[in-house]
Design goal:
With 80 residues, this protein is mostly helical. 45% of the residues lie in helices and 0% in strands. The chain has helices at residues 10-22, 27-40, 71-79.
């Protein structure tokens, strides 16, 4: 097995180590898993589905009748 040296932000490494411990694994194991999927051409992270915003008209901006300066107006539109 080869060793690989990469540069990663300290805070990112800290967060990754915590998450790996919570999942009962290691950062090295997660990196190996990612690289194996990457090398096979499979997507290790599924793309997120588009978020549907009920206040967006789908083209140019807010739906008609929504006041962008009013939290109440935006909340009411989002709840519909």
């Amino acid at each position: 097995m080869s060793n690989l040296t990469i540069s990663v932000d300290d805070e990112l490494i800290r967060q990754a180590r915590i998450k790996a411990i919570e999942q009962g694994t290691s950062v090295s194991a997660k990196v190996r898993e990612f690289l194996a999927q990457y090398a096979r051409g499979t997507n290790p992270v599924a793309p997120a589905a588009p978020v549907v915003l009920p206040v967006f008209d789908g083209a140019t901006g807010l739906q008609q009748g929504i006041d962008p300066l009013s939290n109440t107006s935006l909340l009411q539109a989002a709840e519909e």
